[in-house]
Structure formats: structure tokens, C-alpha cells
Amino acid sequence: MFCPQCGQQQVSETVRYCSRCGFLLEAVNLVVSSGGQLPMRYLQPANRALSPRSKGVRQGALLMLSTLLVVPIVSIVTVNLNIFPELVIPLVAVFCFIGGLLRMLYALMMEDANPPADAPQLASYAPPVAPQLDIRRPVSQASLNAPSWRPQVNTGEIRTPASVTENTTRLLGKEEPKDR
């Protein structure tokens, strides 16, 4: 495989990034293998929604940090009203901190890392699109190289010969040296 950005030949087909320019080759492999269609995970809108996993981690962190605010408020209220402060304050502290920690662990282990797809944007059925790339056809090296910003100069065309037979005629006119 060759990098479409810089033309560098890659060591294997499983390389994720180009060794020369750092171009993401994983997406190129997916596009070629799917017949020229961009996979759905790369077709995400600009205003991405948070995934359930990241929402859960944020909720857990918020619950853990709320311990710093909730426990002092609960302690002030329970001490002033004399409602078993030695029992309520530790319960609130444990509930907030451990609850936040458990929510984060649940989100990391059980929830999906991909954001939900918008249902109105995706059709329920789309007919298959004809492949844009013919995988059976051999691809030449010249078509894989990335176009450069300046066309490459062919030095063989700088001085064109006057005729095709001129060089051959000149060779025939030379006499061989005689060593005798």
C-alpha cells in the first residue's frame, strides 16, 4: 500500500499511520474495502453528542465532586437542627463519593463508547451503492502517488532530437579503428 498523501510505500497493509507524513491510513483501508463508501463512524455531524460512556463518567465525577459541597451543607443543617449528625453526615459523604465512583465504573465497563446516531438523518433503508473502486482491476504505481504541487519535469524532453534516425546514421558513419 502507498500513502495517498506523500506516496511512501508502507511496510504492510495493517499500518494505521504513514511512517513519513503521519496520514491516517486506517480510513483509507476501510474506504477501499467498502467499495469507495465512507464507513458510518466517520460520518458524524459537527456538533457531536456525547456518548453514554462519557456522560456517565461526567455524572460520576460530578457526584464525587458534589461531596465537597453537599457534606458541609448537610453537616450545618443537621448540627443546627440536632438530627443525628453523627449518623447523617457520614452516610451523605459515603453515598456521594462511593455513588460517584460506582457510576463512573459502570459507565466505563457497561456503556457504549459511540454517541447515538440521529434517527432522522439516517434512512431506515438505503439501496446499495455501486462500488466506485474496482478492486479486481490492478492499480499502477503512478495512480497511487499523490499529486505534487508542481508537475515533475521530464528531463528527457528538454532537448528533442531532430529526427529518429539521426543518432543511428551517425553511428553507422563511424569507422572502426584498425589495430593491424
- Please state the overall shape, judged from the principal axes of the Cα atoms: rod-shaped
The span between the termini is 60 Å
Mind telling me the C-alpha Rg? 35 Å
Kindly state the mean pLDDT as a whole number? 75
The computed structural class is: mainly alpha
Q: Percent of residues in helical segments?
A: 40-55%
Tell me the series of helices and strands, N- to C-terminal. Answer: HHHHH
Tell me the number of strands: 0
**Main β-sheet description:** none
Residue windows where pLDDT falls under 50 for at least 5 positions: none
| Discrete helix count | 5
Beta content comes to: under 5%
Written description of the protein model:
With 180 residues, this protein is mostly helical. Helices cover 43% and strands 0% of the residues. It has helices spanning 25-33, 52-81, 85-110, 141-144, 166-173. It starts with 24 loop residues before the first helix and ends in a 7-residue tail after the last helix. The model has no long low-confidence stretch (mean pLDDT 75).
